[in-house]
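> forwarded from #structure-qc
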């Protein structure tokens, strides 16, 4: 039976890029359905009724959501080419652990530092540094989080390689500097230069415009709470 693979995503979603990368690494042909999140399509709501978020993968009519779970599904379904998770059960569990840590801790802490200013931002940067130090340790002795080539954890953390430099440009706040995080800086460079990754990054200018606009309401809210 011919495979039918569809990916519901947006042009910018870092979670959806994980799926794009995994399918491309595995050589799986797929159709892209671009969503506009300001007006979600009935298809998105039908396929992901619980969260109504992208990405959604639809494989032969079966839909699934949550990018890290989709990555696992892709790895188990298209086993022959380019395994994403390590074979060893302990290493698999560790890769899942750090991927979850990235979504539960690293991303929210970086978002807090991105959407604050002044004293609030000085406080927000502390957990960012602690979280990044843990990731730095995970890279010790390795080129990529998954070893010599990119794998599950690199795809899960791919947003870090793309978003942080944009957040730094917008805020003027340095989060990942070479002196404190030499291994992360090297990883960002190496990961971003993998041809498949380079080809799929969303346009930087468009991303900068989008994130500047996303940040503004947070700053406006903070301004409104200031004593007059
Ligand atoms: N935990 C989800 C997060 C997905 C997510 O937050 N997607 C955003 C786009 S980057 C979205 O669809 N947002 C729409 C909304 O929040 O209503 C995953 O890993 O797939």
């Amino acid at each position: 039976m011919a495979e039918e693979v569809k990916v519901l995503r947006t042009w910018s979603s870092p979670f959806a890029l994980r799926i794009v990368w995994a399918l491309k690494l595995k050589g799986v042909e797929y159709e892209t359905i671009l969503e506009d999140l300001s007006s979600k399509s009935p298809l998105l709501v039908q396929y992901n009724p619980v969260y109504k978020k992208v990405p959604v993968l639809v494989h032969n009519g079966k839909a699934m959501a949550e990018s890290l779970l989709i990555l696992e599904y892709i790895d188990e379904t298209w086993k022959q080419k380019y395994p994403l998770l390590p074979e060893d059960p302990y290493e698999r569990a560790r890769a899942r652990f750090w991927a979850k840590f990235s979504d539960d801790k690293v991303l929210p802490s970086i978002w807090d530092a991105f959407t604050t200013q002044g004293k609030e931002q000085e406080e927000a940067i502390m957990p960012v540094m602690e979280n990044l130090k843990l990731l730095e340790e995970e890279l010790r002795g390795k080129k990529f989080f998954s070893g010599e080539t990119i794998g599950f954890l690199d795809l899960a953390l791919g947003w870090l390689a793309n978003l942080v430099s944009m957040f730094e440009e917008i805020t003027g706040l340095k989060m990942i500097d070479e002196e404190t995080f030499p291994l992360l800086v090297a990883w960002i460079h190496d990961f971003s230069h993998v041809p498949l990754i380079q080809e799929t990054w969303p346009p930087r200018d468009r991303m900068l415009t989008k994130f500047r606009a996303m940040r503004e309401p947070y700053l406006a809210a903070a301004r409104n709470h200031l004593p007059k």
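QC bot note: The mean pLDDT is 96. Residues 13, 15, 37, 52-55, 66-68 surround glutathione (CB under 6 Å).
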